[in-house]
Predict the 3D structure of the following.
Amino acid sequence: TNWRSGHECLWNGVYCDVDANNIVSVAYLNLATNNLDGSIPEEIGYIESLRRIELGSNQLVGPIPETFSKLYELRTISVSDNQLTGEIGANIDGLTKLANLDLANNRFRGHVPHGLGGIPTLSYVRLSNNRFTGAFPTSFISLNNLHTLLIDNNAIGGTLPALMGMMKTLVNLRLHKNDFYGELPNFSDAILLETAHFDDNFFKGPLPQFGSQRLRELYLDKNSLTGAIPVSYGNHPKLQVLSARNNNISSTIPASLAKATNLGVLDLSYNKLSGELSETLSQLTLLKQLYLNNNRLQGSFPSWLGSIENLEIAHFNNNLFSGDLQLGYEFEHLDFLTEFTFEFNQMVGMVPEDVCDLLLDVLTADCW
């Protein structure tokens, strides 16, 4: 570096501003990806003009210095991908101009501070892959500018406040791999929501409703959710992933899902779904991965499957499908298919030889 000589505004990673009175001050410190080790110097907290600190992707250890609490002009703190430890709280939650907080991929512990919910400018919070525990602070529902909340891969627990579903600015919400429990709130008023990850928790009760027309990803896997798949899930034209495997979802798969024509992944495996598959699901022409295995689905095998030409994976095994196995020659158009299972059903018949020749590497069935 060139930090040993010259004016600090000429040092690598240091950026300065000049105000109306021609006073020069340090505004931005960017030392990300510099192979730095050791602890964060507490002297950084004395640069009261700082608006942005980026120290990510280094090998820094220890806590965030308490002197950070004096950086009242800070808009951004990014220290992700280090080995930082300790708790956060008074060193951050009094920074009333803070907009972006990225602490992901460290070893922080303790509770997520309630005081963060009192920073009205906060719009981006990423605390993923740490060791945070305790209940989720309800104060977050007061953050009227929050668009991204990523707190996955921690041990945060408790229930989600019902009012979270009314946060109209939320775009990205990732709560997966935590210890949340109770019922999921409805997100009918979260009209900007694009990604919602609730998987690998202890949620129970019905599947939540969503009001956003922008919803692209919905992950509900590995919970204890019950009841039917909402018919309204077909009203999300941009939905690309619907994954709800390993729950206790029952009833039928609604034909309305066919209206979600951008679906690329549909995983409803390991549930208690029953009834027959609607032929309208053949309208999901962009579908690449379809997991319906380990349910109680009935009726004849969906011969229309061969019309979904982008299909790569199709699992129908461990259900109650019955009747003659009908794999027509339209299956020759499934050029991308790599996995196709339908064993452990109640079907009779064998796969025609020509179809077997096409699917020999991916078919778990007997051929003529």
